[in-house]
User: What shape does this take?
Amino acid sequence: MRPCKHLDYETKYTDCKIVELEGFDCPVRYWERGPIWTEGPGNEGNPKKVQFCGKGRGRINGIFQCYSQSGMGCYEAAP
Assistant: This one.
């Protein structure tokens, strides 16, 4: 399992923080979005744990889609 080279962990998103999961053979990191994205009117059902793609796909509504070829058609393994 390797992350896609296009995952964006550098950009600073408003009310988001990077979280790293343990217990995997590679670092698994994702963005945890805060209440302005996930709570209140109009935000019902918005995912809290997401990835951001630097290749133009924008927000990915999950964690693991960008960690294998089977998850996203645009996946390119990081070096």
Observations:
- The first helix runs from residue 35 to 38.
